[in-house]
Every structure is written in structure tokens, then in C-alpha cells.
Amino acid sequence: MIASPPHSAKSTSGNRTMVNDHILRMLETIAGQGNVSTQSTDLLTHAYDATRQKFLPDVVVHVENTEQVSRIVRLANTKKIPILPRGAGSGFTGGSLPVRGGIVLVLTRMNRILEIDTDNLITVVEPGVVTGRLQAEVEKLGLFYPPDPASKDFSTLGGNIAECAGGPRCVKYGVTRDYVLGLEVVLPSGDIIHTGGRTMKNVVGYDLTRLFVGSEGTLGVVTRIILRLLPRPESRKTMLVAFASIDGAARAVSTIIQGKIIPTTLEFMDASAIDCVRRTASLDLPAACRAVLIIEVDGEETALDRQVGNIGELIASLDVLATSIAATTAESEAIWQVRRSVSASLRSLNPDKFNEDIVVPRSKVPEMIHALEAIAARYGVAIVNFGHAGDGNIHVNVMVDLAEIGMRETVDQVLDEIFRATVHLGGSVSGEHGIGTAKAPFIAMELDPATLACMQTIKKALDPNNIMNPGKIFPESADEHRLSASRP
Fold this sequence. Notes:
With about 500 residues, the chain is α+β, with helices and mostly antiparallel strands.
């Protein structure tokens, strides 16, 4: 969720919590004096995430091991001080914002890859490991960690687990939760627990591992992670298909999967995204093109040409205008550059971007796109859509100029309609960005009161003092954190 540059930034430092000189000395005793800061520059650095909302913490503490985390969390619980685990701070929904001040617990120094077990295809890591770094290290050994969020070059695995991050490859390989075998977690009480383990099969007790994955730091602090790995695919092949309609592209997605081919990625751009890129870059697509699919397959090299040929035959009658198949790595990169050009081109429409990541059943993608077109026309705003067609995850970009009188209220109404249309089609208001503060006002559209109450019961049972990342996921005051600031 986004809006304009911060216009109502809140400072919580010193007026909501009990972080006094005595508490600061205790934190310094635990973490070391050089790892505890109340300097204004440090507080400001940790007051933002990708939403560009601003909430100042009272103190920033860098930790280096689980014992430090446990002692600090226990202290915070005893003194009822809000505590917020933080990695790279790259989230899109405000999940890492200290909305009630307190202690920001920075985990980026816990960044060791502790083990890569090539016999059992697992790795043990700390939460501050950058996702792309882990992928590079395991690939040197012929292994593969599939989850690939767009932020993989700077986001941390702890953050990926907090949000249950996805990415283009999830249509074939799944999302973060599908690779987490076990966790070490510091509970809000300061107790250290261990969930899951090093085996593929483990059904002893409740599945606490999945409870913590996607909990956005509201139930505890993850301090160690056991992930499963796969053998690295031998090769990959990329193709771009231009369609005369979004309906044809959507039917192509279903047809490919019904044909017993599961591509690594199935990315789409709708007409609005194509038009946007055409304004800023040369695009070698037919003039009649109203949708694009970027399809990538991986596996044994000898089988890829056959898969690509089969895909071409399956979709040939579905409004296909043209097909390009990459013969080299450079040609594959050129195809992906078309997709990457979308975000950079959006500012040609308007200066302020509201980026949502809704998800609907694959078969409902055309209906959702048509609903978005109708909303755009009704309110006179630009809406640009692209994303992961293989799993129905649409990145909806509402492009406006918030300097226009009444535009913020218009955006409120547009987003409300987008989410209502999504849920009506059997979808979800968040596919991979989490809820945080930005989507909390809309969560009741999707979750019935009994389900929401069940979640809140779990939160209260584990965190009775509500110290762990408070103000996230569950709606409190309906508009407290909505629509605060625009992403770069």
C-alpha cells in the first residue's frame, strides 16, 4: 500500500514506552554499548520501510546471537516495551515499522550460513542472510533454493519468512513456507523453542513451523532457520508470447497447465502495462498486442525444446499474435527486460504509485482485469497490471497525482473496490506482501469474524502483553496507518 511522500509522519520516541536510561544500560549490558543507539540518525534509518511511512523507535539494538535476542525480549516483556524484529526493512505493507515506538531489534548481523548439507539437501542459516547470497552459495554446489522475491538481492531470509515471500518461480516450486523445515524462535516471554527439524517428514505435535511463517514478527523472533534445497535444474528456456487479448493469455495459462506442463514461471503484462512501456522504451511487439506472457521452463536440456514446442502447439489458437523463443542467455535476458521495464515506466503516467499484490484463482484473471479496467474508467485513474499469471497473483498499480484536490479520498475508494472485487472472485487481498499496517483495515473483507478471532486468540496466548510487533495484521483504528506514503 502506498501514497505520497510522508506528510503525517509520527514520532513515537520517548512518549509511548518505558525506554529510560536504566533500560538503555540494561540493553547495553546484553548487546554491548556499541550495538545500542538512540542517535537520531539511527532512529530515523530504522523508522521506514518500502511504504515510506515513518515511525521513530525509542532505541535501535543490533544483536548477534540467540541468547542476546532472548534476554532482550524477556526484558521487553517484563517492562511491557514494544519490540520489533527487523531485517532489511524492504517490506511493502509496513510490517517492519515501529508504530508504537519501543525497541527495534536488528537481525542483519546474524547473517551466517551455518551449514549446507549436500547429502540431505538442507541448509541451516541465520535470519540475516540475504536471500540472493544463499541462492548463489548453494548453486555453487549444484543445489537450488527456489523462492525468488523481487527483493532477493537485499531482503533477508528472516524477512522472507515473516512475510512468506513468493516470486515468479512459485507456480512450479511454491513459496517460502514450502521450504522451511524447522525454526528456532524466541517467544515474547523470552523462551527459546524449536519447531520442525532436519527431516522431510515430521508430524510430532502441532505444526508450529507453519504458524510462525507469515506471522510478520507478531508471535516471536526467528533466530535460526532450516531450509530444504533441491538439485539445481540443468538448464532453462525462455519464450515471450504476444496475445490479441487478456482472455487469450489467461486461457493459455490454464491450457498449458492442463497439458501437464508446469513452467518455472508464467508472467503476464496486460494492455495497460504494455502501453506504459511503449511510452518510454522501444518494444518489439505487434501493434495489436493487448497481453504478453513470459514463459520459462527448466529441467534437463534435452527436454526443453520439446516442452517449448508443446506449449506453442497448445496455445496456438488462443489469440496468439507472435512468439519469440530465446536461443541464448542474452536473448533470455532481453525478454525479461521487457517485464522489468514496467515498474520504471509507471512514472510516465503519474508521480504517485499505489502498488497492491492481490491474488485470484488462475481462471478468474480475465474477470479481475476487466473489473480493474471498469474501476479505472469509473474513477478516472490509471491502473496498470502485471504479475504472476501462473498463480493468479496480480500486481495492481494505481497511478495518481496526490497533489490533485480530493485524490487521496478517491484512492481510498478505488482500493476498497479493488479488494472487494478480489474477494468476490474468491481471491485474497495479499498474495506475497503480507498485511502489516497497510492492509489491516481490509482484512475483515476476507476473514470472517470467527476466523479473525481465532487468530487473535493465538496472538494473545503467545503474547499476552502485546509487545511483539504490535499494531500489525489486526485492524485497530480503521484508518490509523492507511495510505500514508508513496514508494520510490
